[in-house]
Amino acid sequence: MDFATFAVQCLNAVQYGLLLFLVASGLTLIFGIMGVINLAHGSFYMIGAYLAFTLAPLFGQNFVLMLVCGTLLAALFGYLLEWAFFSYLYQREHLQQVLMTWALILVFEEARSLLIGNDVHGVKPPDWLSGSIALGSLMTYPVYRLFASAACIVIGLALYLVVNRTRLGMMIRAGASNRDMVRGLGVPITRLYRIVFAGGVALAALAGMIAAPMSSVYPGMGGHVLIICFVVVVIGGIGSISGALIAALLVGFVDTFGKVFFAELSGIGVYVLMAIILVWRPEGLMKRGY
Q1: Where are the alpha helices (DSSP H) in the chain?
Q2: DSSP secondary structure letter of residue 132
Q3: pLDDT of 25-64, one tens digit each?
Q4: Cβ atoms within 10 A of the Cβ of 263, count?
Q5: pTM for the whole structure
Q6: DSSP 266
Q7: Is 141 left (phi over 0), alpha (psi -120 to 50) or beta?
């Protein structure tokens, strides 16, 4: 493998890992703060991809504005969804949470089929992101993938600042540590949960919108993402955003280079990684924290 090919694979691994981090950070927030096992989280990624397919023709070259509008719509949807369904799950057993969120997956898939159909769609990136840059004399790399990585980094930094430098973030961290004490101090825990859930949905949908121009938009696309995101959350440590970032990048490199060097075994690489890390650190790479 020459240097240009190695550089391309490293860029692909980082881009994939950062995209996984966006989805997994929303999942670990919801589980770490609210204690809800949300199997429908991958469906929010799918909804984001279909939002991109629907909104892209309306916004044209204003791709960033489309991402902002789609994220706001997803956050509003998440806020209403928490009020209508998830607010009843906090005191329930995990089995009931799993059953209800599995039912939501079926509802979302059927709604997608009725509204848009079962065809595979593509989302064209805007003209200003459709070029490539040269890597060596023969290799090129799409500008849009660089944009996707940069967008994920910016969003990750914004998430860090919100969680660690704002009053809302202070309440989120306190709620993750001791929700009963936070409730006793007068913090409106119901509204806090609603905001956290809306944020988790928005992160997953935003990841789907960013990923749409790089891959097809197709039925059931949230299923694989959900499984990988649970792997990321378990490896990183349940409830840890920093752990989710480290784990997502590890999974990105293992998956990307596994497909290059061990194509026949690439499907099990991330699960072998998870098994090794859990034997070494059963609580994951990072303890609950941000």
Answers
A1: 3-34, 41-59, 63-84, 94-115, 143-165, 167-177, 179-184, 189-211, 221-236, 241-261, 269-280
A2: E
A3: 988 888 877 778 889 999 999 999 999 999 999 998 899 9
A4: 9
A5: 0.92
A6: G
A7: beta
